[in-house]
Design goal:
The chain is an alpha/beta fold. It is built from eleven helices and ten strands. Strands 3-2-1-4-5 form a five-stranded parallel sheet, sandwiched between helices. The longest helix has 24 residues. The two termini are 28 Å apart. The model has no long low-confidence stretch (mean pLDDT 93). The structure holds xanthosine-5'-monophosphate. The site of xanthosine-5'-monophosphate has 17 residues, from loops.
Length: 321
Amino acid sequence: MEIREITLEELDPEKFIKEQVAQISKAVGKGIAINALSGGVDSSVVTLLAHKALGKRLRTYFVENGIMREGEPKRIVALFKSLGVPVELYDARNEFFGALKGLTDPEQKREAITQTFYKTVFGKLVRDSGAKFLLQGTNYTDVEETIAGIKRQHNILAQLGIDTKKKFGYTVLEPIIQLRKSGVRKVGKALGLPEELYNRPPFPGPALSARVIGEVTPERVKVVRQATAIVEDELSTSGAFQYLAILHEDKVTGIRDGARDFGMQIEVRCWESTDAVTGTPTALRFEKLTKLADRISTEVKGVVSVTYNITKKPPSTIEAV
Ligand code: XMP
């Protein structure tokens, strides 16, 4: 399937919204559709487009998969409630951690998330609701990178030849597939999303599991979640494109209170980018870097080393997994 990009320059947000709302209405007809809201700008925009098109015939779920950021599930559900969009919280922590158990290979971890998300969780929600459609926020960059074989973004299905109707029992609709992130933000603003959402730094679909090198366990996710909260707190005013914490697999020798402390390593990344296709590490002030190291190594139990990535994308990627 050939997908034509709509560039930022040619994008007319009002016209785009009208067209997509009409297309969603036409595709779903009198039926029911469901969608997954993660609180990122892509899924937030799709939620509002679909809500405009379908109203009560849209069932929006926030899947609590256990790998989201601190306080995120409740905050996003409350925020959309205030926008008039009901969102149901669906607890799938056991399903996700069960599927990720014992896996260390990045692509196997992505595949486990894909299967749990589309087959186990959404397969069930679709069957229970009688919906025939799943709306999701795949964007143009997701498709491009997956097709180029760089990284299989978890939400790419049809472009890889996966027939979701046969495999999972529903059709996937992707209203923002022609837009890059900057275009999605523009549409989000036009839709009346609050700025904290339409200007949100990107966050990967596989959530914190994309930031845990090695096995993804509840304990290891807790470590990266705490480090992420500190990084976001310290860097939210940096103006950077994206900032994150990564938990490494190898432990290193540290020293605490005069005794050997063989502990974990956190890597901080902070990116300048416009579209995530290429990226340059932000030249953070050294005082900021040492503050990050001090906070993470004292506030996150078991961390004895904090490093900062200084490698561009390419050859690095934004995330580590
Ligand atoms: P990479 O790591 O490929 O990331 O340089 C490019 C952008 O995409 C985000 N990312 C993902 N988003 N599913 C997603 O929805 C994924 O599997 C995934 N992996 C990376 C990443 O945060 C960055 O903004």
